[in-house]
Every structure is written in structure tokens, then in C-alpha cells.
Automatic annotation (TrEMBL):
Subcellular location: Cytoplasm
Secretion signal, residue range per the UniProt entry: none
Key words, A-Z: ATP-binding, Cytoplasm, Magnesium, Metal-binding, Nucleotide-binding, tRNA processing
Organism: Aquibacillus albus
Record-linked InterPro entries: P-loop_NTPase, T6A_TsaE
Protein name in the entry: tRNA threonylcarbamoyladenosine biosynthesis protein TsaE
Keyword DNA-binding: no
Length: 151
């Protein structure tokens, strides 16, 4: 499976999709989220958090680049928007290879640091509530996850 596309019609549906995804990934998984402001990247991350048993409220990490949430597994939530014109390595590998799941908003800004194997997710706004969510798995591990997600 080279890509898998779903349309959601409510933020709850987007969260449910992310919850399902979180049950399929193992520690060390890296998920990137691309999409305009208000597309639903943070909403998607909240869904991951629910599945991972995070109880703290997840919100956009605007002032910090990484927020770490404890659940059954840690959830590392990165918003690298502010690194657009920088090539600074904030120790990405420690997160990507760590015991948790990493989610990166605006991942294209740190392309050079991203692991080759990862799950790229693109969220497009179709109308006020409809979102087209496309999963682009990079590597067979993530391809299998997408097959499961599509069941
Ligand atoms: P981003 O992190 O991409 O800037 P947010 O997740 O913070 O976006 O905001 C998405 C907004 O769109 C929220 O207010 C959410 O309630 C709303 N929304 C409406 N429909 C959807 C949907 N189908 N999926 C996700 N969010 C939706
Ligand atoms: Mg956000």
C-alpha cells in the first residue's frame, strides 16, 4: 500500500482514526503531520494521546518545540514551525529512537533530520468540517500499519 486516504466529517472522527493508529504502532514510531493551520494536526494528535492513555490536555506546542506527555507510552509532540529557517538539531534522534511515539507537526521544516522510515500524514481541508487525511507510509513496517488501518 503506497497511500491510504480517508475522509472524516467531524473532529471526533479524526480523533478516532488517530486512536486506531496509536494502537498499531510500536515504541520508536515516527508520524509526521502536514496541513494548513486549522486543518486538524493537533486534533489528530489528541486522538493518539487518548489511545496512549495520556490524561493531560494536548494542545499546540507553540512556544516549546517538543512537549512530552506520559501515557502507557510517552508521546513526544513536536511543532517545528519555528525551525523553518534553522538547521538546528535539538536532539531529534533521542526522540525518534526513544521509548515513545513521536508526532511532528510541520515536519518538512526538519526534513534532513527525519528518519527514512516513518508515516507521513497529510490533512487537507475540504470544507468546514470535512478533512481528507492521506497516509503515506515510508517503509514496509508503516505499509503494514496502513493495511491494518484500512481494514
Ligand atoms: P492544526 O493543529 O492543524 O492547526 P487543530 O487541530 O488545532 O489544527 O484545529 C482543527 C480545527 O478544525 C478544530 O477546531 C476542530 O474542531 C476543527 N475540525 C472540524 N472538522 C474537523 C475534522 N473533520 N477533523 C479535524 N478537525 C476538525
Ligand atoms: Mg496544531
Amino acid at each position: 500500500m503506497k497511500k491510504y486516504e480517508v475522509t472524516t466529517y467531524t473532529s471526533e472522527e479524526t480523533m478516532k482514526l488517530a486512536e486506531k493508529l496509536a494502537l498499531l504502532v510500536r515504541p520508536g514510531a515516527v508520524i509526521t503531520l502536514e496541513g494548513d493551520l486549522g486543518a486538524g494536526k493537533t486534533t489528530f494528535t489528541k486522538g493518539l494521546g487518548i489511545s496512549l492513555g495520556v490524561t493531560r490536555t494536548i494542545n499546540s506546542p507553540t512556544f516549546t518545540i517538543v512537549k512530552e506527555y506520559m501515557g502507557e507510552l510517552p508521546l513526544y509532540h513536536m511543532d517545528v514551525y519555528r525551525l523553518e529557517d534553522s538547521d538546528e538539531d535539538i536532539g531529534f534522534d533521542e526522540y525518534f529512537n526513544g521509548p515513545g511515539i513521536t508526532v511532528v507537526e510541520w515536519a518538512s521544516f526538519i526534513e534532513e533530520f527525519l528518519p527514512e522510515e516513518r508515516l507521513d500524514v497529510e490533512i487537507k481541508v475540504k470544507d468546514e468540517h470535512a478533512r481528507s487525511i492521506t497516509f503515506y507510509p515510508k517503509g514496509s513496517y508503516y505499509e503494514n500499519i496502513c493495511k491494518e488501518l484500512a481494514r
